[in-house]
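Contributing: when you submit paired examples, paste them exactly as shown. First protein:
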Amino acid sequence: MPLVRIGGLAHHVAVDGHGPVCVLSAGLGLGWFDWDPVVPLLAPHRTVVRFDRPGHGLSQGSTTPPTLAGEAGRIAAVLDALRLPGPVTVVGHSIAGFHAEGFARLHPDRTAALVLVDSSVEEHPRPGRLGWTVPAGTALTALGLPAALGPALRRLAVRPDPAPPAEVRRVYRTSRVWRGALRENARYGSVAAELDALRRDRPLPPGLPVTVLAAPDGSARWEERQRALARRLGARYEAAVPSGHLVMRDAPGTLARVVLETGQEAA
């Protein structure tokens, strides 16, 4: 699995399959291997690109605060580094739904289709503060918590966890990954506010195929928020049932079908 250098940072990427390109970007604190159940279903039909954002997976950490434009540009830069100019189907899970939608709005000529997988939704976003993350990350490292408890915390958060145990230990024993997750979480509100402003200024490309794939998991409130997101984007709505938030783990067949169908609409 290669490393590509973007903005001076080494980014871990994985490329599988052949055919039209789709880019998969996972949620907060997750890694490339969280898409493993989906990749074999997509790879016979698509060139599947996975990458780890700074501080996630095997990518180098960063001290630069995440921004929406920066994360959308990161997707474009990954494709450039791999010489895959597009247009592509961009798939964003959870917080990466912000990034995927931002990519579609800022790089419309490179976007064939958009799939939001149980995406984060903020109707009234408030910018957050980053200052506390540096001392928090330093404290965690000084106490040795990532090395001692990192994999166990991952197992508590993701149950059952289909990820390879060796990769989980390799990734979650590092303070870099926990710092990366803290940094993204602290900037969550600011990135959501950037997207809210972008929606007013940069419309999605006319006729762009968009699907919102939600995992309501029995929550009528979450389902309505996801449906409202679909209406706002003029998107097709589908629910993955049964599934928790990690749709790629719980309903990989449904997710793969939605990605292929949405991408096919663009063909």
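Second protein:
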Amino acid sequence: MKADRLLSILLLLQTRGRVPAHELADRLEVSVRTIYRDVEALSASGVPVYAERGRHGGIELLAGFRTDVTGLTADESRALFILAAQGAHAALGLDAALGSALRKVMAALPAPYRPAAEVTSRRILVDATRWKGGPQPAVDLDVLQDAVFTDRRLRLRYRHSGAKEPSTYTVDPYGLVSKAGVWYLVADRRARPRLFRADRVHSAALLPDPVKRRPGVDLADAWEELRRQVEERPGGLDVTVRVRRSRLDMFLRLNASSLAELPDDEGEEEWATVRLSYGVVREARQLLQFADALEVVSPPEVRAEVAAAAASVTELYQRVSGPSS
């Protein structure tokens, strides 16, 4: 709609200052001629906007002009309050700033939209943590944030999963990503993308050198490359199990990351067949928590691993409990 486009032009100019007509045309997906007609319409309505021709020209608002029009629709105002998910802002030390920003947005909203926005904040809750994920370790993101926002290199002392001692790396940060409640630093090491869990960083120090990122690569590009590597990594071990349907829902929730395919939900049998994918045999030990409602069908090495784990638990229990009288 033309009214939406005029408002978009006004807000872009207010935010960016002088903007070339062709850039506005590209962003709003119209022709340059349409942009100039829109500028004339804004000027006719009393908005002090003008265009300068030439190589360094563009469209600009008169210096000092501001509008308090938010331009938010009802759906956009709801989206802002849903965006205020718990956890991420607290980890970045921005909870107070977020609350202040939302109060200002609420005050600037058109009166008819305010009740819907208030109801949204009370009716929608976003919890990014996984079920029964256990307590999350404290994460200090201060130095990592400093590196990200000042474009400086970092020296990390980082402990890999399963390693007893941390290793030292010099990295070039792209940014921070929160994935299912876990914070990651995305950075290049020797011009290759790497992923570092923030809760495994023992220490981080800013270096005086500026970052050396790969040309044309930003955070979204680096994250997509790393995400694809993780998700497309071959599981290596296909496992088939049978699960009692009375426990199937809980089993699927707790093993969602290992599912190779979803089972048939419409079966009437007592047992459902589920196919999983693991990286190594030892990972299958997590199946032990459903031992009373699960049977490993294949492969034999996983069946043996789960049986051995069950025997170890039984032996430990008997040793702790002592001989029965």
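If you have annotations for the second protein, write them as plain sentences, like these:
The chain has a mean pLDDT of 79.
The chain has eleven helices and eleven strands.
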